[in-house]
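Entry for the shared binder. Reason: the reviewer on the internal report wants the predicted structure included alongside the sequence.
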Amino acid sequence: MRVFLAIVFFYAMVAQVAAIYRLQPGDRLSVSVWQDPKLNQEVVIAPDGRISFPLAGHLRAAGQSTEQLESSLRRRLQTNYKEKLNVTVMLLRGPGDETGRERHIYVTGEVTNSGLYTVTRPTTVLQALSLAGGLDVYAAKTRIVIQRKENGEDVLIRFNYRAAVNGRDPWSNIYLRDGDVVIVPERGLLKGLF
C-alpha cells in the first residue's frame, strides 16, 4: 500500500511540474521592479529566446517559468542596488492567445502535403507539420527553419524536430504567427552513410 501511495504521489508531482508554463519566443511580458518604477516595462521574447532589459542586458527567457526569469533578473539587477529588489514578471500575452483569429501558415519542402494552411486555433510547429501530413523520408529533421517577418525583415528560427519530439528541446516548439513559413529542407542522400 505504501508503494502504491508513493507512486501516486510521484506522478501527481510530475503532473504538477509539467503544468508550469514555459516562456517562449513571441511571449509579451510585463516586468516590474518595485524599488525602481522607472525600469517597469513590457518586453517581448525575441526569436532567439532572449530579452533585453535595462541594467541587466540580454538574458535567456525561453524555456523558463516566470518565477525563474524573475530570479535571473533579480540577480542581474541586484549588483546596481543596495536594498533587496522585488522583481515581478507577468505573462501578458502568449503567441497562442489569439484563438478564433484566422492565421495563414505555409509549410513547404519535404512534407507529405506542402501548401497554405488556414488555422483559427493556436498552432505549434509540430502541429503544422502534422497538418501537412508529416515529414517525408528525405526530410532533414534537424535543419527545419521557420521564416517569419519581424519589423519588415525576414527572421529565421531554427527548429530541430528530433530534439523537440524527444523532449530535449521542448520550448523550440513555438506557436506560429500569421504568415510564418515552415521550411523542411531535403537531407543529403549520402549523409549518415559514412
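Summary line for the report: The mean pLDDT is 80.
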